[in-house]
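Predict structure. Chain length: 71.
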Amino acid sequence: IVAKESPYQHMEELRGRERELRETLARLHMKRHARRLEKPSELHTAKKDLARVLTVLSEKRIATVRGRGAK
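Prediction complete.
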């Protein structure tokens, strides 16, 4: 996902999604360690989703810094 292609428009939405995914990951890790995780693929998917959100956040931060420096 490239920052301009992101379905999330605002940084606050991205940060909210990041928090949500981190909570989901924590819950899935606990389930895995308790041997109650029914679909191990959920853990993989949550990790990938979090990585995508963090990438977009990073790209937006870089674009903001570059925009300020160009003035």
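Summary: The longest helix spans residues 40-69.
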